[in-house]
Design brief:
alpha+beta, Ubiquitin-like (UB roll), 16-stranded antiparallel beta sheet, six-stranded mixed beta sheet, 15 helices, Putative outer membrane protein, BamA/TamA_POTRA
Length: 800
């Protein structure tokens, strides 16, 4: 008997030697390559095709070829056949005849192709939401059918349909008919949570709002709600909470009952926490990064945020990373003390300091490397700093030259170095717009050219490539029968001239023709005053220097000229009047510590020192014996913002200004909230609520020709009522006091016109500010007939 067993074993071994099989497959389990031996070089004696014979013409093998089994890329052949698109379930079998010859077997099935797919049960509106335009550009085969049904299934499941059924019918000529039955909506009647004695039913509904708000069951939303529920328990000290079971009970054909069973465990409190492994920063420094959390509810998620949140510049990981530590590690170990208290150990593996090494710029084809590098706040060889990385990204995005700016790191642990790779997607360099507008009584065309990445140096050298230096050019022309405007501006955000931060040139010219009907006065003469050309020219040069983080110095040279030319009906000029001509210089200092993106400013300071002066014509002719300034203006304005407590904020400010050697064209004006006058500098109008604008006939505090010296005080207490991304709403109680004088002798810091009031402000995105003020004036006005009383102002400031 034993001999028979031995003979059987020997036969099995011989068969294995002849037909030994070794199998492996690609990522697609339906497509396989099967090998039957371990030898290397073999001759293909025969190639057997099971299925479509067309496969033989698509592969680079034929009978009689010799191939190295181990080196030949059968998977590549398999992928080529799959990409061809007509085949599926491809298998390649290799059978060994002897030590020199093999038989190659290739089997496959053909894909099903359809001429048309007819779908019943889906509306045209739903179809547009389910499928994008490019979805139907692919071949209508069985792979397409799988994707097709998957899209439909995902769409209706997201809407709350969970019992979706399909009926697929094949018709003649390879036409397919699919009937979709989405069934009834899975509506939630109620949610019951067992094992919970911490939260009320109303609190649970607020947490699971995604599932319970619309009362429709959607798997993904329900999954998110369960995660939110568990996290809510954890941040309230229930660190061992878990969902034991979940059940869905059908109440009727339309409604279901959801049941969750919780094991909430004990509520834990933090008794103490300490650090281990910290050598660079002692415990005192690290504990300052935490608020007072001892003996409070144990919230590991919050603690981890204090440690690991890199977006928080005050976290522990940010402290390490801005001091050269590229990859610090943090581990959290909990130890139960008594029944409900935990001691927490935060173990720190600081690792070594790293240095910046290479800076690689990828994707900037039109923006010069030098423009990008001057915005990067670190250099090769410097200590690693996460703070500098964040600042560099902010600077690069502010350039407004890129659709996106991304980066990655390549670290060398041996050399303790980090290479930074920046990836850029550039915006379009220029924009051209042309449109026709109608503005009564004129029809005019508008042409706008904007170049965002201009290079003046290349342009002057007649270089074909006129971009790369991040200089900006805006050219606007408005042409009509009665109105012509030309505006040209050039901006260099980082000029090399005297190391300024910004250089800007502006040229503006307009000509307006006013034609009225022919009018004759009593003596039958043409009234020329109603027919004239008004020409306006403005030229300016601006230099800006960033002094420190919040300080800015600005120097401007401005030239303005206006000219009125009166004419008769046939455009014959009768006389020319030089209406206005002015060359002035401006020196402006600004210290601004407030965030410019804040709608309601909560904290910071805004200090402005502004001086404008005009040199006398005698000085320009080098005659120094006469006065130095023909005109000089100085203004000082400061406002402090601060948080008092919770949603209460204060605004306190003072303003002072004076003018020397002035004609009455550029005086100060005070009173009201909105005042306009020809050639009036906006800075020369000082609002004072409760009183009327200087152009009114009553309730004014400014004389007709304005004043030469003024001062003003302001204080506000603001309460923020509503604050979200879309809109903000607050109330403001204010007290203002100020006065304006037409000579210096009458000036007094105590002789003030006072007002008090309250106001509402609403800011809506894409609309702007809406507001109103109700103010009471305490003091008499210049007309002496307007008594103290109330005044209402409405505010609308459109911003985009």
């Amino acid at each position: 008997m034993n001999q028979i067993y031995i003979l059987i074993l020997i036969l099995i071994l011989i068969l294995k030697l002849i037909f030994f099989e070794l199998n492996f497959s690609t990522a697609n389990s339906e497509n396989k390559i099967i090998l039957n031996n371990n030898f290397n070089l073999f001759k293909i004696k025969q190639i057997k095709i099971f299925g479509n014979k067309e496969i033989l013409s698509l592969i680079d093998l034929k009978e009689g070829d010799k191939i190295d089994i181990k080196k030949y890329q059968f998977e590549k052949t398999l992928n080529i056949l799959l990409k061809y698109g007509n085949f599926k379930d491809i298998k390649i079998n290799i059978h060994y005849i002897n030590n020199e010859e093999i038989i190659l077997e290739i089997s496959s099935n053909e894909r099903d192709y359809f001429n048309t797919i007819e779908v019943i049960g889906i509306t045209e509106k739903e179809s547009k939401l389910i499928f994008d335009k490019d979805f139907f550009k692919k071949d209508l085969n069985d792979d397409f059918l799988k994707r097709f049904l998957k899209r439909i299934n995902e769409f209706y499941e997201e809407k709350g349909y969970t019992n979706i059924q399909y009926k697929i019918e094949k018709k003649n000529n390879n036409n397919l008919k699919i009937t979709v039955k989405k069934g009834n909506l899975f509506k939630i009647k109620d949610l019951i949570i067992e094992g919970n004695n911490f939260l009320s039913k109303e609190e649970i509904k607020k947490i699971m709002i995604n599932s319970l708000k619309e009362k429709i069951f959607v798997k993904d939303k329900f999954k998110l709600d369960k995660k939110n529920l568990i996290n809510f328990f954890k941040i309230n000290g229930f660190k061992e909470v878990k969902i034991i079971s979940e059940k869905i009970k059908k109440i009727n054909s339309n409604y279901y009952l959801l049941k969750l069973k919780l094991d909430q465990g004990n509520q834990y409190f933090l008794r103490n926490f300490y650090f281990k492994g910290n050598k660079v920063f002692n415990d005192k420094i690290l504990k300052e990064k935490f608020p007072s959390i001892k003996n409070k509810i144990f919230n590991l998620l919050e603690i981890k945020n204090f440690v690991l949140d890199e977006s928080n510049t005050d976290s522990i990981i940010s402290l390490y990373k801005k001091n050269g530590y590229f990859n610090p590690k943090f581990f959290f170990y909990e130890k139960k003390v008594d029944n409900n208290f935990i001691d927490l150990e935060i173990s720190i593996l600081e690792n070594k300091k790293f240095n910046f090494n290479k800076i690689n710029l990828i994707g900037n084809k039109k923006v010069k490397d030098s423009i990008i590098l001057q915005e990067i706040t670190f250099s090769p060889g410097e200590l690693w700093s996460n703070k500098k990385m964040i600042k560099s990204l902010e600077n690069l995005n502010k350039l407004d030259l890129f659709e996106s700016v991304n980066f990655n790191y390549e670290s060398n642990n041996k050399k303790k170095q980090v290479d930074i790779n920046f990836f850029f997607t550039e915006k379009k360099n220029s924009e051209i717009n042309f449109k026709i507008n109608y503005q009564v009584p004129d029809l005019f065309g508008q042409f706008l050219l904007k170049i965002n990445n201009f290079s003046l140096l290349n342009f002057l050298k007649f270089n074909k490539i006129t971009y790369g230096d991040n200089q900006k050019v805006n050219f606007l022309i408005n042409l009509g029968e009665n109105l012509k405007k030309i505006n040209l501006s050039f901006i260099d955000p980082k000029p090399k001239l005297l190391n300024f931060s910004k250089f800007q040139l502006n040229f503006f010219s307009s000509k307006e023709k006013k034609k009225n009907k022919i009018e004759y006065n009593k003596k039958n003469f043409l009234n020329e005053e109603n027919n004239y050309d008004f020409t306006k020219n403005q030229y300016s040069m601006k230099l800006i220097k960033e002094l420190k983080k919040f300080n800015k110095l600005e120097f401007n040279i401005n030239y303005d000229s206006n000219k009125k030319s009166f004419f008769k009906n046939k455009n014959v000029i009768t006389k020319v009047i030089e209406k206005y001509k002015n060359l002035n210089f401006q020196l402006f200092f600004n210290k601004k510590t407030i965030d410019k993106n804040q709608i309601l400013v909560k904290k910071g300071e805004n200090l402005k020192l502004n001086s404008i002066f005009t040199l006398t014509s005698s000085l320009r002719k080098k005659n120094l014996k006469k006065k130095f300034f023909e005109y000089f203006k100085f203004q000082y304005k400061t406002i402090w913002y601060n948080k008092v407590f919770n949603n209460f904020f204060t605004k306190i400010g003072y303003e002072f200004g004076f003018i020397l050697n002035n004609n009455s064209n550029n005086n100060f004006y005070m009173g009201g909230t909105n005042f306009e006058k020809d050639n009036l500098n906006k800075e020369n109008f000082i609002p004072l609520r409760g009183y009327y604008e200087p152009n009114k006939f009553f309730g004014v505090i400014t004389k007709k020709n304005g004043g030469v010296i003024y001062n003003k005080y302001i204080s506000e207490l603001r309460y923020l009522i509503l604050d979200n991304n879309f809109l903000k709403f607050w109330i403001s109680n204010f007290f203002e006091a100020g006065n304006i004088f037409d000579n210096y002798k009458n000036f007094s810091i105590l002789n003030l016109k006072r007002s008090i009031g309250t106001g509402l402000r609403l800011f809506v995105n894409y609309i702007g500010y809406l507001g109103c003020d109700l103010s009471y004036r305490f003091d008499k006005t210049l007309d002496k007939t307007t008594k103290p009383g109330w005044k209402f102002n409405f505010i609308f400031d459109k911003k985009f």
